[in-house]
Write a structure and sequence with these properties.
Layout lengths: L12 E2 L10 H13 L9 H21 L5 E5 L2 H19 L5 E5 L5 H13 L4 E5 L9 H7 L3 E7 L11 H9 L7 E4 L18 E5 L10 E5 L25 H15 L8 H18 L3 E3 L10 E6 L4 H10 L2 E2 L1 E2 L11 H5 L4 H5 L2 E4 L6 H20 L17 E7 L2 E8 L4 E5 L6 H11 L2 E6 L5 H14 L22 E2 L9 E4 L2 E6 L5 E5 L7 E2 L1 E5 L17 E2 L11 E2 H4 L10 E2 L5 H4 L5 E4 L3 H4 L10 E3 L5 H7 L8 E4 L4 H12 L5 E4 L2 H5 L2 H4 L2
Parallel strand pairs: 1-11, 3-4, 3-5, 5-6, 16-17, 18-22, 23-24, 26-30, 27-28, 27-29, 29-30
Antiparallel strand pairs: 2-8, 7-8, 9-10, 10-13, 12-13, 14-15, 15-16, 19-20, 20-21, 21-23, 24-25
Helix pairs in contact: 1-7, 2-7, 3-4, 5-6, 8-12, 9-12
Length: about 700
């Protein structure tokens, strides 16, 4: 597998263009030239100001041509959010004067959050107090026209979008216009056109769209510049007053360098050039990416209809694989994409896909890959190659199942912690014996557990639950039916009845009775207490009749139920871990441990330790990230994913006196692991703030 040099910024493949785009060289040049030589205030009457005014006026003329607006207002703004606010303030102010009893403010259920939040804010502030009502969409993401027809006559404003930012789905503007105007000829109508610029032909004068906001940074311009088109008959209230710029429609000195950037962009859009690709070429790019994704991820599904979407957006989910895992391995391969929702497991998934009625797993696992009209065939070829890399890495790590999975050094062994939100699930694995026990599986982790078992052909000895949580109990019962090879009698928590009160070894340090054990290779998992089940894991038993138990899974049981069942240096594995502590010591459960020290290493202090061969560098990224990108240091690197930290602490007590540096992509996971190691006696552990992402950036190198 070809490694990616994460230190070379030129290796980045940016496929998150719906979020923002890089600034094209010719556009950056226009910005620089304006800042250096045409720096005048467009409102000044001297020659320097007149030169600035020329850029302002010519850009406005080009903008009108691009969006098909000969009449009406065309105002430069700071971006789409300001345009949305202006439209909402204008429409609600108008309603307060003409229709203060309006019942509704309508918006598409898949709109960018800036729209409903602006409606809610100004609705309350201006005192209209209308009901915000989301217009439903079908499974294709198209707005419900019947719903619009039933409600638009009682509405003060309706907000839709031309192209969805998550899925690329295009709305049928003509059909929308017919449904709206047949039932309310004068209602203010805003269409978010941010994702349409440069991707769809626009002729606003041929429509009755009242407000159309745009943003420069979505199409190779800088951030902080945008514009909005306002129909001639549309009600208009300035959002910013005080200075009279933009003919009194938007006060504040104009962002002339940003406007010059739009000028350069518009020239590209209206002239033949080799920079921006045709729609036909962009569709071919999408086809190539889609085929590579399907080959790399066999369980992949696309979450939108390509025929109803712009060609530059692919939204997909991979069954059984979390979006975070895919994003991380893409990042390690130098591909930048985004999740279909916020990057946090606490977010239940993409609200856009939920509104479309797609399955929960699709919403929760969604990935958005988006490119722009300036993407080249070379970019696509490299992206397809790296997508295959990412798929191979996930297969090696058992997150994907393939016809053949290589049994390599990434095979799991010992205690593995899987998390969903704050909930912890544990796999106890004996690699040599190919045996496994599951404790407290969460439904969202079930597919991943199945993949691991299938990939390594493990024999599952038991699927246990420690509490009364309905979701966990049901997930455990379901997994028992899928994973247990032999019919087995077990009690309510999954404890095999054949193991009840019988075992070939006993805990050496236990002062309480145990209720049998489950053999996992050479290890024994003891059950302590029947009312609140606690499980204690031993070291390899061999031929010994007494074994040390030094890992405990207490579930919801109180401390006194297990403190006398394990050794004093036992690792306590929590059922819930909202503060990302991962694992506790017994002294922490009693509140008697010494506080940890600061573990942060600022990015500017890295030169010294990268060249020290006496360090232990721990890469806490997942296996699939580690295998596709190197870490630039002299010292040996140990890959210890967060999922395997508990077993690392157990097995590497000899490293407590060594200098340890933890690293990951962003510095978040490495901070968690460094703090865990500090708490468990690895006192000379620190981590790299900002992670490898900042280490490879020009800004970091300048520190």
């Amino acid at each position: 597998m070809k490694p990616i040099d994460i230190q070379t910024n030129g290796n980045e493949l940016y496929l998150d263009c719906n979020a923002t785009t890089p600034v094209l060289p010719q556009i950056a040049k226009a910005v620089s030239h304006t800042m250096e030589t045409v720096f005048g205030n467009p409102s000044s009457s001297h020659i320097t100001g007149l030169k600035a005014r020329y850029i302002l006026d010519t850009t406005r003329q080009l903008a009108r041509k691009i969006v098909g607006l000969e009449r009406g207002r065309l105002i430069f703004t700071s971006g789409a959010t300001e345009g949305i606010q202006t439209a909402v303030v204008s429409a609600i102010s108008h309603a307060m004067k003409t229709r203060p009893s309006s019942k509704y403010l309508l918006y598409g259920a898949t709109e960018h959050k800036a729209v409903p939040q602006a409606l809610e804010h100004w609705n309350e502030l201006l005192g209209l107090h209308a009901e915000l009502k989301a217009i439903p969409v079908d499974r294709e993401g198209r707005l419900d026209l019947d719903f619009i027809e039933r409600h638009v006559s009682d509405a003060a404003m309706i907000c839709t979008m031309a192209v969805n930012n998550e899925t690329g789905v295009k709305q049928d503007i003509k059909a929308l216009e017919e449904a709206i105007r047949a039932n309310n000829a004068s209602i203010p109508w805003m269409v978010d056109c941010v994702q349409a610029l440069g991707k769809l032909p626009l002729t606003l004068d041929e429509t009755t769209i009242d407000y159309a906001p745009f943003s420069g940074h979505k199409l190779y311009g800088p951030k902080g510049i945008g514009f909005m088109a306002v129909r001639e008959q549309a009600p208009f209230t300035p959002l910013l007053i005080g200075g009279g710029q933009e003919s009194g429609q938007r006060s504040g000195t104009e962002n002339l360098p940003g406007i010059a950037a739009l000028n350069a962009l518009f020239e590209l859009l209206i002239t033949e050039n080799e920079v921006l690709q045709s729609d036909k070429r962009l569709r071919e790019y999408r086809r190539q990416l889609a085929e590579s994704l399907q080959m790399a991820f066999p369980t992949l599904v696309f979450n939108h209809n390509f025929e109803l979407s712009v060609p530059t957006t692919l939204n997909f989910s991979v069954r059984g694989v979390a979006s975070r895992d895919i994003m991380d391995v893409f990042d390690a391969c130098g591909i930048r994409v985004s999740g279909g929702s916020a990057c946090s497991s606490k977010v239940v998934g993409s609200f856009v896909l939920r509104a479309m009625g797609l399955d929960d797993w699709q919403s929760q696992a969604a990935i958005r890959m988006s490119f722009g009209p300036a993407t080249t065939q070379q970019d696509i070829d490299e992206a397809c190659y790296r997508i295959r890399q990412a798929g191979d890495a996930l297969k090696h790590s058992c997150l994907l199942i393939a016809d053949t999975n290589n049994d390599n050094d990434a095979a799991l062994d010992g205690v593995v912690q899987l998390k969903y939100d704050a909930h912890c699930c544990y796999l106890i694995i004996d690699k040599a014996a190919k045996e496994l026990v599951v404790i407290d599986p969460h439904p969202a982790l079930s597919a991943r557990i199945e993949n691991i078992v299938t990939c390594r052909d493990y024999k599952v000895k038991a699927v246990l639950s420690t509490g009364s949580d309905t979701d966990i109990t049901e997930a455990a019962e379901l997994l028992r039916g899928i994973l247990l090879r032999e019919s087995s009698n077990h009690d309510a928590i999954g404890w095999p009845q054949s193991n009840n009160r019988s075992c070939d070894a006993v805990p050496a340090d236990s002062e309480v009775d145990v209720e049998g054990c489950v053999a996992i290779g050479e290890r024994r998992l003891f059950r302590v207490n029947s009312e609140h089940p606690v499980f204690a894991l031993s070291e390899p038993a061999g031929l010994k009749s007494q074994v040390k138990t030094d890992v405990v899974f207490p579930g919801d049981a109180p401390l006194h139920n297990y403190e006398k069942a394990v050794s004093g240096d036992a690792l306590v594995c929590p059922k819930d871990d909202p503060e990302h502590r991962i694992v506790y010591s017994l002294c922490e459960t009693f509140g008697q441990c010494d506080p940890s020290e600061d573990v942060n290493i600022p990015i500017g202090e890295t030169d010294e330790f990268w060249y020290r061969d006496d360090l232990v560098v721990i890469d806490v990224r997942e296996r699939q990230e580690h295998v596709v990108s190197d870490i630039p240091c002299t010292a040996d690197v140990i890959n210890v994913p967060v999922t395997e930290v508990i077993q690392f602490i157990h097995d590497h007590q000899t490293l407590k006196e060594r200098d340890i540096i933890c690293v990951c992509r962003s510095g978040n996971r490495s901070a968690v692991v460094a703090n865990v190691l500090q708490r468990h006696g690895f006192k000379r552990t620190r981590h790299l703030m900002g992670g490898l992402a900042l280490l490879s950036s020009p800004a970091a190198k300048a520190v």
